[in-house]
Amino acid sequence: MPAREIVVVGAGPVGTVAALACARLGHRVTLLEAEERVNDSPRASTTQPPTLEILAELGLIDEYIAQGLMAPIFQFWDRPSLRLIAEFDFDRLRGETAYPFVVQTEQHKLANMGLARLRAMSNATVRMATRVEGLAQDARSVTLQTTAGELRADYVIGCDGGRSTVRKNLGIEFEGFTWPERFLVITTPFDFAAALGCCYRNYMADPHEWTNLFKVAGDDLKGRWRAVFNTREDESDEEALSDVAVRARLGRIHVPMESRDYLHLNLYNVHKRVAKQFRRGRVFLCGDAAHVNNPIGGLGLNSGIHEAWDLAQLLSREGADLDDYERRRRPLNIEYVQEQTIANKRRLEETDPALREQRFAELARMADDPVRHKAFLRRASLLESVRRLK
Ligand SMILES: Cc1cc2nc3c(=O)[nH]c(=O)nc-3n(C[C@H](O)[C@H](O)[C@H](O)COP(=O)(O)OP(=O)(O)OC[C@H]3O[C@@H](n4cnc5c(N)ncnc54)[C@H](O)[C@@H]3O)c2cc1C
To answer: Cα separation of 40 and 12, whole Å?
Structure first.
């Protein structure tokens, strides 16, 4: 297969993985990023076993694990009563994957690791502060208009996030909806494992307001916790971000009054949308440019990395049918990512007392049954979706 001229738009985690995978396969790769540096706001950290397999193939795994935290277990809690409902252990996947655990490494670390590798490769060019503003294609190539001039490519991979300029330029519809509530992320040094006896990855159900509670390493590797909450539909940004409301939320996850200091706040809009097409001609969409979902379950970025990896192989295979990309990836995203993240959200926010108890009992039964426990983990980690393609 001859080396292609590939331009990747966006140096988020998906774009850097796409660029690195293509460059390692021998293509000439240019990675364009609109900003001067990688965005380090707190977003994804949960990296599932099949994604760790890809990072190992890319030669990043040791550095990736060293910059994060291993989280083999996740737990479901009833938040008001602080009752542990069920615990799932990735060690049950031993034998099916070389990585029977999740690694919590912040997504900007992956992007920066990928950029460092690309900068050391003679067939790769990284251009920061270069925004793509438009594109046009014919049967032979794609021409990109950027803030630094025009660029030609055999193929373009749009990894430019949920508001993708590439997707908009292709006129591809982003089907779906925006949830009425927003998600608030509070980063705090409070040690929840010591105080509550929880693990590094926790889903806390509450009929009034749920919480996802995670530990990440932080840039200093000293460790910190991120608590993600839904806001009330009628709650203004100002109110959600106010010191009083933030401290009250920390109180509702059982942080004592004197320990309610926090390091960082972020408020996000949350969507459920899938691009109507993942490919048009010589241009492909990957990651958030192709689909967005709520972060409960940690699937959005993981699926984007799987797409980037899959597409790099496809573009390198002699005689490959490039329509396979959309044929495989779009249904997988809908079935595994969109459906599961909605189910995950519903599980946490159920308000009917009888239904809540039913859901809790079902989770506990699943955790106690070795066959169902493993089946749940295979699906929740996207391992099932990845193995299905093989
Ligand atoms: C609170 C929160 C928690 C999350 N937790 C998880 C989790 O645990 N696990 C998980 O799998 N997912 C999670 N997600 C989702 C995850 O953050 C996204 O799926 C991920 O950021 C997608 O990466 P990306 O590279 O596709 O896009 P982005 O990270 O958005 O990167 C896009 C890049 O493109 C650049 N760009 C944009 N426009 C242009 C242009 N015109 N020209 C050049 N460059 C451009 C941007 O500057 C940016 O660097 C979470 C999301 C949120 C909000």
So the answer is: 10
CA distances from 87 to 90, 200, 283, 384 (A): 10, 12, 42, 20
Provide the 10 A C-beta neighbour count for residue 17: 31
Q: Give the tens place of pLDDT for each residue, 332-364.
A: 999 888 888 888 888 898 999 999 999 999 999
Backbone angles phi, psi at 374, to 5 degrees: -65, -40
Which residue pairs, CB below 8 angstroms and at least 24 apart, start in 2-5?
A: 3/27, 3/28, 3/123, 4/28, 4/154, 4/155, 4/315, 5/30, 5/152, 5/153, 5/154, 5/155
Q: What is the pTM of this model?
A: 0.96
pLDDT at 152: 98
Protein residue with its CA nearest to atom 51 in ligand 1: 43
Domain 5-73+98-175+272-348: assigned CATH number: 3.50.50.60
Would you state the pLDDT for residue 338? 85
Closest ligand 1 atom to residue 14 Cα is 25
User: Any idea where the domains of the chain sit in the sequence?
Assistant: 5-73+98-175+272-348
| Residue of the CA atom closest to atom 29 of ligand 1 | 12
**pLDDT-based confidence at residue 104 (cuts at 50, 70, 90):** very high
How far apart are the C-alpha atoms of 352 and 350, rounded to whole Å?
6
Ligand 1 atom having least distance to the Cα of 183: 1
Cα 197 from chain centroid (whole Å): 26
Residues in contact with ligand 1 by the CB-under-6-Å rule are 9-15, 32-35, 39, 43-46, 107, 131-132, 159-161, 165, 183, 185, 228, 268, 287-288, 295, 298-302, 304
Q: Give the integer Cα–Cα distance in Å for 20 and 308.
A: 10
Residue type, 368: D
What is the CB neighbour count within 10 angstroms for residue 320? 13
**Which pLDDT score is estimated for 294?**
87
How does residue 236 score in pLDDT terms, banded at 50, 70 and 90?
very high
Contact 189, 152 (CB under 8 A): no
